[in-house]
Each structure stands twice: as C-alpha cells, then as structure tokens.
Design goal:
By secondary structure, this protein is α+β, with helices and mostly antiparallel strands. The protein has 4 helices and 20 strands. The strands form 4 sheets. A 6-stranded antiparallel β-barrel has the order 2-9-12-11-10-13. The chain has a 5-stranded mixed sheet with strand order 15-16-20-1-19, with no helix packed on it. GO terms for molecular function: efflux transmembrane transporter activity. This is Efflux RND transporter periplasmic adaptor subunit. InterPro entries: Beta-barrel_RND_2, MdtA-like_BSH, RND_pump_MFP, YknX-like_C.
Length: 353
C-alpha cells in the first residue's frame, strides 16, 4: 500500500516537472521570436564616424623613360664598307667618324673634275684676253665663264662625295646597336648605327583631362623608379600635348637629368602636385557613395539614437571618392555609407560592425 503511494507521488512529480518545462520553453521561444521580430524591423547599414582629415590630392601617372635624343645613323652614298671604327656601347661625339666607305672610284672622279677645272680656268683666261682685243664675241666669253663655274661646281660635288665616304655621328651619345660590318655594301638611307643620348631622359606619361589644367610647363615633378626604390629623382615638365588621345588623356613629358643609373625603357611613376596643400588640411569629408541620389543632392542619412535621419549638407570639392563637407555635418556624427537605399527618414537601423 505504501509502495503504491510512493509510485503515485513520483509519477505526479514527473508530470508536474514536464508541464513546467513545457511552459518554460514556450516562454523562452516567445521571447526569442519577439527579439527576432524586433531585429527584423531594423535595417542593416554600414556607417562611418566623421573626423577631420588631410586629403592627398597628388596625381600619379605611370610611364617609361625615353632618350631625349636618338637616331639611326645612315649612309649618304652607296658603297662598300672598308672599316668600322666603333662597337656597341661606345660613346661618340657629334661629327665623329664611325665607319668609312671605299672611295677608289670617287678619287678617280675627283681627279677628273680637278683636271676639267684647270682646263676651264685656262680656256676662260684665253677668252678673257681675246675679248679685250675683239678676238671673240661676248657670247663666247659668257659660255667660257659658264663652263668655268660648272667645273668649279663639279669639284665641290666630288668633295662632298669624298666627305660622305666617312659616316659620321649626327648626335653625341652611345652606340646602342651596330648594324654594319666591314665588307657590307650599303645604300643611301640604310640604317647603320643606332645612337641614343641618355644624359637627359624624358618620362612620357598620360594625364587625365580632369588633372591637365592643374599642371604647367616648367613645374617640378617627383619621380619614383620601380627598380631604383632608394633613389630620389625629380624632373620638370617640358611638354604638354595640346590635344588629347581617344581616351581623353593628354601626353605629357617630364625631363630628367640622368645621374648614371637610369636607362631608356625603364618604368617609372611621376607624382604631380596639383595644389599647395593648405586647402586640403583638416577637412571634413564623406564617401561619395554615402549620398542619397548622388552627390548633387547633398542628402545624407545620419545616425540618431538607433534611427536614420535624413539631412541636407553643403558640399565642396570632390577629391577622388571623397566629398568635402562645408556645412550641415559635425565632427563625430555617424553617416550611413551603405544600405541607405532601403531607408526612410526615421527608419530603425542595425549598424553592422
């Protein structure tokens, strides 16, 4: 009898405990559902805290170094190369003889031209004397004088040919490539030597149309070279194209004095200073993406006690992806930078960390 009573009491306790658990779990679930519902009412957003900052407006453009002077030295006349006096890598001066062309046939023509000149001088002298006594007509004298001038011109012409048998450097520089060997037969205009002058180099870059009005001829430009990271270089702008390319970029050249380490063809970056720096100090800015319906609207959402309030600000200049704020926003305020497309004035928000 007592045993049965104990069983009844234990069974009643278990039933009571199970009932309590059910009620407790139901309350917990209701609380969780309420919390989730509360979160669903909020819109997830990203924000930034507005603080003054210094804006770097330097404009960078990449390009390659080109020689200030370069040329393919060619022959002026046809002929066979007799000797080559320099090799690749040799430094040469303007006017220095690089190679010579065989001149045997030209020497024969020079001798003939000189003989013809001597004969023309003698004939003309005889006609000059004869004209004084009436022995020849004025027409005959004029013909004699013309033959003398032609003979003098022929001698000068042959002298030019003799000079052209010496192939001379047109500029000072370094022989970058030698394309001729003794025994080769060359024709006028055939490139024989590539000469480059890299004492001064030109950095050729493209500048966007939005920046071209901020630079000027003679302006100093800082330059960094990938393969020479420890070398501080600078140059000056010597050329700004008056016309852009199809991509609305303007070719610009920066002249750099070579201290010995630079080579034509090296890749480098030019950094253009586009203002004096004072106007971009301690400035309030927000990302351009934070504006509702674009920067021109001047509308932003700011955080106020867990809600998003729509405000109107006065904007200044645009610096890349940042917009200057002149008024309407204070330091320390939080501005919504993403998620604002789902917001209305007064919407509850959940800030994503």
């Amino acid at each position: 009898m007592k045993k049965n009573l104990i069983y009844i009491i234990v069974a009643a306790a278990l039933v009571g405990l199970a009932g309590y658990k059910i009620v407790s779990n139901k309350e917990k679930q209701q609380q969780e559902v309420a919390e989730v519902a509360k979160q669903v009412d909020k819109i997830n957003v990203n924000v930034i805290t507005v603080t003054p900052e210094d804006i770097n407006t330097d404009y960078s453009a990449n390009g390659t170094f080109l020689p200030k002077q370069e040329m393919n030295q060619a022959s002026e006349i046809s002929g066979r190369i007799v000797s080559v006096m320099i090799k690749e890598g040799s430094k040469v001066s303007a006017g220095q003889t690089l190679a010579t062309i065989k001149r045997d046939a030209i020497d024969v023509d020079v001798t003939q031209a000189q003989n013809n000149l001597q004969n023309a001088i003698t004939t003309n002298q005889r006609f000059e004397n004869a004209y004084k006594t009436g022995g020849v007509t004025k027409q005959q004298l004029d013909d004699s004088r013309l033959q003398l001038k032609n003979a003098e011109a022929a001698v000068k012409s042959q002298s030019v040919r003799v000079n052209d048998t010496r192939i001379k450097a047109g500029i000072s520089g370094t022989i970058n490539k030698k394309m001729v060997e003794p025994g080769m037969v060359v024709a006028p205009g055939t490139p024989l030597f590539e000469i480059v002058n890299i004492n001064t180099l030109k950095l050729s870059v493209l500048v966007d149309e939005s920046q071209i009005g901020k630079i000027a001829l003679g302006q100093r430009v800082n330059i960094s070279v990938n393969v020479l990271p420890d070398e501080a270089l600078s140059g000056k702008i010597t050329f700004i194209a008056p016309k852009s390319d199809e991509s609305l970029n303007f070719p610009v050249e920066v002249e750099v004095q070579n201290k010995g380490n630079l080579k034509a063809g090296m890749y480098a970056t030019a950094v253009f200073k586009t203002n004096n720096g004072a106007e971009t100090k301690n400035m309030l800015t927000v990302p351009a993406t934070a504006f509702v319906n674009g920067v021109s609207s001047g509308q932003l959402f700011v955080v106020n006690n867990g809600t998003a309030n729509l405000i109107k600000v006065q904007t200044g200049k645009v610096y890349g992806d940042k917009v200057q704020i002149l008024s309407g926003l204070d330091e320390g305020q939080q501005v919504v930078t993403s998620g604002q497309i789902n917001l209305e004035n007064g919407s509850k928000i959940n800030i994503i960390k």
